[in-house]
Amino acid sequence: MEGVADVQNVDNVTVFSNTTGMISPPGPSTLKTVFDIVIKITLIIIMFGMGSATELEPLLKHIKRPVGILIGMLSQFAVLPLVTFGLAHALMLPNVPALGMLVMGCCPSGSTSNVFTYWVDGDVPLSISMTTVSTTLAFGLMPLNLLIYSGSWTSDDLVIPYINILISFAMTITPVILGILLRWKFPKIALVVVKVGSIAGAFSVVLTLTLLSLLYPFMYSASWKIYLGAILLPFVGFLFGYIVASIFRMEHFQRRTVALETGIQNFPLCMTLLSLSFSRDRFAEISLFPLLYGVTCILASVVFAGIFRIVKVFATKSSERKENGCTENLQETIETTKRFLDD
After folding, report:
1. For the chain, first and last CA: distance in Å?
2. What is the pLDDT of residues 251-281, one digit of tens each?
């Protein structure tokens, strides 16, 4: 029957194809159209909320003294591509999925990192600055990294989606600027917008996980190596981002920010690059890793935020116990002193 999908194995990677032998991404559909529109609207709301959480003075401080931004860019465009390259070789992935993994690791950070930074009490102005700068630098550093590392798996030129990078930049910076202005002029209203943006972020996480699974179910048929790589890469990004920030003695809340910016890549940009660079019959195969990464990256970020919240609760309780103990000791000292004076 025409259009019925079957399963093929290409270079040890299981992909879905139709009976005509064509391996392709899902065609335009109502679900995909709704997904694209809703995600874009949600992104604008999120960035408007994150802008509303950003005070102008700390942001200008990062711009005037961009030490934190430079450290983040070192982690983003020097450390992560090299780590991704090494991880793909260590896992001995086949050429095509390895290339998909490399493209993912060379992408700039995504706006999702901004809302997770807010959830872990990170440096939101630094996060926004890093996202903006990394998106801008992606025009040159993304093709440079791909040129340096992709030779292990392909000799083809990859098409860099410059228009999509510009769109990503505009969708990030415009609502952020509006949010910053709102906080400057109407701080009380801005507090409400921040909460709305945070809720929109949670909604976006659930929606993305759900619709990715519905639109691209073939990704769950990937080999265990691709699964392992997709699980490891976000955590490796978090780890190396945190290490680099620690080496430069950044504050702990800024280390968390750099870790998230390094570990969360711009997944839609990666998918656009792959769709422009490869024919439809290879898209499903090369998109396996980025698709799984889109799922595991969100889950890893949730774990990251969850661990922080748990540690914060225990630290707060421990601090309260110490404070109560000090208060009790002080009270005992006062009462003892009083009794001594009375005697």
Report:
1. 102
2. 999 999 999 998 888 888 888 888 887 777 7
The 10 Å Cβ neighbour count of residue 26 is 15
Handedness of CA 38, 129, 271, 105 (dihedral sign): negative
| 140: pLDDT strictly greater than 70 | yes
SS (H, E, C) the chain: CCCCCEEEEECCEEEEECCCCCCCCCCCCHHHHHHHHHHHHHHHHHHHHHHHCCCHHHHHHHHHCCHHHHHHHHHHHHHHHHHHHHHHHHCCCCHHHHHHHHHHHHCCECCHHHHHHHHCCCCHHHHHHHHHHHHHHHHHHHHHHHHHHHHHCCCCCCCCCHHHHHHHHHHHHHHHHHHHHHHHHCHHHHHHHHHHHHHHHHHHHHHHHHHHHHHCHHHHHCCHHHHHHHHHHHHHHHHHHHHHHHHCCCCHHHHHHHHHHHHCECHHHHHHHHHHHCCHHHHHHHCHHHHHHHHHHHHHHHHHHHHHHHHHHHHHHHHHHHHHHHHHHHHHHHHHHHHHHHC
CA 111/CA 275 separation, integer angstroms: 21
Structure tokens at 306: 């969850």
Sign, Cα dihedral of 313, 315, 297, 167: positive
Closest to 80 measured CA to CA, from 62, 52, 60, 102: 102
Whether pTM > 0.85 for this model: the answer is no
Q: Is the dihedral of CA 312, 314, 319, 323 positive or negative?
A: positive
Spatial separation of the C-alpha atoms in residues 236 and 255, rounded to whole Å? 14
